[in-house]
Amino acid sequence: MPAAFPLSAVPVADPRHQLEVIRLEGDMPSPVDPPGGCHFHPRCPHAKVGLCDLGRPPSLEAVGAARAAACLRLAELGGVHV
Ligand code: SF4
After folding, report:
1. 3-class secondary-structure state, position 25
2. Which of its termini does the chain have fewer beta carbons within 10 Å around, N or C?
3. pTM of the complete model
4. Whose CA is nearest to atom 6 of ligand 1?
């Protein structure tokens, strides 16, 4: 799951910091019957029909030294949203 979305909600202990919260549309997917493809695709603003909604969920890949992301468009999006 892209980390930019949950990380946007983490408070910063600096009153001058402008928090830019990314609000996702739609409902949480069912954990007992998750959608096919990337489980996040119904709510992801970067989802691509025919890619993200098909097949198996993406595998976790290293992004830099200390982070990882599971996204089929990771290279295409340049890791911007993770
Ligand atoms: S695989 Fe597709 S739906 Fe899933 S996080 Fe990446 S862009 Fe969004």
Report:
1. coil
2. N
3. 0.73
4. 71
Mutate to test the pocket of ligand 1, among 52, 76, 77 (most ligand atoms within 8 A of CB): 52
Whole-number Å distance between alpha carbons of 26 and 5 = 14
Reported as a single tens digit per residue, the pLDDT across 52-81 is 999 999 999 988 888 888 999 998 987 655
Quick one: CA dihedral 26, 74, 61, 22, positive or negative? negative
Ligand 1 atom with the smallest distance to the CA of 2 is 5
62: exposed, middle or buried (Cβ count in 10 Å: 0-12, 13-18, 19+): exposed
